[in-house]
Amino acid sequence: MKNDATDTLLKDSPDSRFGQLEPSQISADLRFAWMNYFDETKSAPEVCRRFGISKKTFYKWLKRYKSSNGDSSSLSDRSRRPHTSPRSTPAAVVALLKRIKDETGYGQRRLRAYLVENHNISLSERTIWKILKRLQNEDIHSEY
């Protein structure tokens, strides 16, 4: 009993093997084909040989697939973006920096001295420069 999705994906390969694929080339459809082929053969090493993937990779996706009760959306890549940035400069300080920059026109060196003297806030010149650059880019993108 062959699965049409597996056959379709394998048909494009000259020797019916995928060889080594880069992670960016592997789609959720291909991972789903792994799972279908595994259901047919019940052999993880056979799936790995057939699709040219490592056992570690296969078992990672199999675990994710089984923990979602067979939901194919679990085979999509997840974002690697962190949920939080705990060391980022607080929004209130960024707003203060923007207001002072708009009022005075100072650069990062004078802004740093101004923040230390008047607000007891210590930021490096480089951090101030990066914040100003990000704010400048946001202003440019908001115009369009």
Present the secondary structure layout.
Elements: H1 4-11, H2 28-41, H3 44-51, H4 55-67, H5 91-104, H6 108-119, H7 125-143
Explain what this protein looks like in three dimensions.
The chain is an all-alpha fold. The chain folds into 2 domains: 4-75, no CATH class; 91-143. The protein has 7 helices and no strands. The protein has helices at 4-11, 28-41, 44-51, 55-67, 91-104, 108-119, 125-143. Helix 2 (28-41) packs across helix 3 (44-51). The longest helix has 19 residues, at 125-143. It is rod-shaped. The N and C termini lie far apart (56 Å).
List keywords for this structure.
144 residues, 2 domains, mainly alpha
At a glance:
The chain is built from seven helices and no strands.
Structural class: mainly alpha
Number of strands: 0
Low-confidence runs (pLDDT<50, min 5 residues)? 11-16
The count of helical stretches stands at 7
Average predicted confidence as pLDDT: 85
Tally of separate domains: 2
Measured between the Cα atoms of the first and last residue, the distance is 56 Å
Query: What percent of the residues sit in helical stretches (DSSP H or I)?
Result: 55-70%
Give the overall silhouette: rod-shaped
Return the string of H and E elements: HHHHHHH
| CA radius of gyration | 26 Å
Strand content: under 5%
Biggest beta sheet summary: none
